[in-house]
Design a protein that fits this description.
The structure is a homodimer. By secondary structure, chain A is an alpha+beta fold. Helix content of chain A is 40%, strand content 23%. In chain A, a hairpin with a 2-residue loop joins strand 10 and strand 11. The longest helix of chain A is centred in the middle third of the chain and has 27 residues. The first copy, chain A, starts with 24 loop residues before the first helix and ends with a helix. The interface between A and B is large, with 38 and 38 residues. Chain A binds a DNA duplex through helix 7.
Chain lengths: 235, 235
DNA sequence: AGCGAAAAGTGATTTATATCAATTTTTTTA
DNA sequence: TAAAAAAATTGATATAAATCACTTTTCGCT
C-alpha cells in the first residue's frame, strides 16, 4: 500500500523492488564477480550523456540524479535513483551511448560492474532477463507520466508531486505522522520540477504559508503530506 | 543517415527497424500462429489506459497515437507509432495494466497477437528477447528527450520538433526537395506539442509567414525542413 | 570562530502562453 | 448538393512563469 493508502507512488518511481533482490545466488555471484566498490562524494559524476558505457552501476547506498543538460547548460533531472537501484544499463542494452548523465546527490557507495559480466549474466540468467524487461516496461510508464506532468501541470503541481516522490526516497526510520526531511538544493529541486530556482523558492514559500512544509536552511520538512497530495492533483 | 545528414531523428522515434524485421521464420510463425487481422477506421481505440492486456498489436499498415488522458479529459500524446511497430507489450512485460491508451490516427490494418503466443515466443526466441531489451532501452532515451523537451522548450520549439518527427512518419514515395504532407488535426497536434489548439494555429501561422510550411485545410505541407530544424533548436 | 563563497531568498518587470468568445472554413452526411 | 456538424481560425484578455538585479543567509574551510 502506498502513501496514506491512496497515492500511487509507483506511478512515479522505477523501483518497486530492486532488480537484484533475491536473484539466485549463482547469478548474483556471476554478476558481481569483478565488481569494484567506490565511495563517491556528493556531486561526483558516474557517467556522462553521450559517452559509451564500460559497465553498469549499482547503488549500494546513496542517491543519484539522472539528468540531461541542454545546449545552454541547463540541467533537467529525469529521475532520482536511490539505494538498491541499478544504473547505466540502458546504454549497454541499446548498444548506444548513455542517454543521460548520472551524478551523486549525497555521498554514496557505488559498485561498478563491467559490461562483460553484465552481458554474460544476462545470457545465463532468465530471471535477470525477465526482471530487466519488467523494469524497463515499468520505466516506460513512469516516464510517460512525467511527460504528461510537464506538458500539462503547473509549476506548483509539479513541485508538489516531486516533493511527494522525494519524501518516499528520503524516508529513514519513518514513524507515521513524522515529518520527512528532504535535503536537496533549490537548484536541483528546480531542475526536477522543470522551473527556475526563484520559482521553487516562491512556491515553497506558499507551501510554508499553508502549513505543508517547514524549512531550515536548505532542508525541507514535509509536515502535511495529504495537503501536498491534494495540491499535486494528478488523478 | 538522418534528415539532411544532420538531425538525429532517432532521438525522437522508437523505430529504427521493426522489432519483427528479419526475425527467424520459426520465431515469427510461432508469434503469428493465432494472430487476427483487423481493419480499424480512423479514431478507433485499440486499448485504454488502465485496462489489463490480452495481447499485443502489430501495425501492418497505418498510424496509431499513444496517449494519456488526465482527470479533466485533456489528452497528451506520448508517441505516434507507424507501420511496422509493435504496441501494447509494456503492459504484458510489466505485468500491470496499460500505461497509456492507443487509437488510430487514420484507417489502419492491425494484427492482434494473443498474450500467450507473445510470451511463449519470448521464451523461445533469444533474438526477440534481445530486440525487446534493446527497443525498451531506446524508448527510455526517447522519452527522456521528450521530458526535457516539455520541461525546457517553448511551444514554438516543441511544435517545430514534432513537425520534423511527423514529417518522417508521413513520408511516402519521398523525393528530395519534395514537400511532405502531414494530415493531422490541430487538436492532435496540440496534444502532441503540449499546448492548446489555438496556439498551434498561431504558431503554424508564423511558420507559414516564414515560408516553412503551407496549409490546405487541415493538411500541412513542410516546405522548408532546414528552417524547421533551426527553430526546433534542440542540440 | 570568522572569512569567503555558494546558496537561498526577495521584489520588480517582462514575456509567453492559456483562456475566452466569437467567426469562418472545412468536412461529413442526409 | 445543401444543411448540419465539426474543425480551424482570429482577436482580446488574463495569468503563470521566466528573467533580472539584488540582498541575505548558510555553510564549508583554514
Amino acid at each position: 500500500m502506498s502513501i496514506q493508502g491512496i497515492f500511487p507512488i509507483d506511478k512515479w518511481s522505477f523501483k518497486s523492488e530492486s532488480i537484484l533482490t533475491d536473484l539466485p545466488a549463482a547469478d548474483f555471484e556471476l554478476l558481481m564477480a569483478h565488481k569494484s566498490e567506490h565511495v563517491l562524494k556528493k556531486g561526483e559524476i558516474l557517467f556522462r550523456e553521450g559517452a559509451y558505457p564500460a559497465g553498469i552501476y549499482y547503488i549500494i547506498e546513496g542517491k543519484v540524479k539522472k539528468y540531461k543538460t541542454d545546449k545552454t547548460g541547463r540541467e533537467q533531472i529525469i529521475y532520482v535513483a536511490n539505494t538498491g537501484e541499478l544504473l547505466g544499463y540502458h546504454a549497454i542494452l541499446s548498444q548506444y551511448h548513455y542517454p543521460d548523465s548520472a551524478a551523486t546527490l549525497e555521498e554514496s557507495t557505488i559498485a561498478f560492474i563491467p559490461k562483460e559480466d553484465f552481458l554474460l549474466t544476462l545470457q545465463q540468467s532468465s530471471i535477470l532477463n525477465n526482471r530487466l524487461l519488467k523494469t524497463l516496461s515499468h520505466e516506460f510508464s513512469v516516464l510517460a507520466n512525467s511527460i504528461t506532468l510537464f506538458a500539462q501541470n503547473s509549476v506548483r503541481e509539479r513541485l508538489a508531486l516531486q516533493l511527494i516522490v522525494l519524501r518516499e526516497k528520503y524516508k529513514v526510520n519513518f514513524e507515521p505522522g513524522m515529518a520527512v526531511e528532504i535535503n536537496m538544493s533549490r537548484d536541483d529541486l528546480a531542475s526536477l520540477a522543470g522551473t527556475a530556482r526563484e520559482n521553487v523558492v516562491r512556491v515553497l514559500g506558499e507551501f510554508k504559508e499553508a502549513g505543508i512544509v517547514e524549512t531550515k536552511g536548505r532542508k525541507i520538512f514535509i509536515t502535511d503530506i495529504n495537503k501536498l497530495i491534494e495540491l499535486a492533483n494528478t488523478r
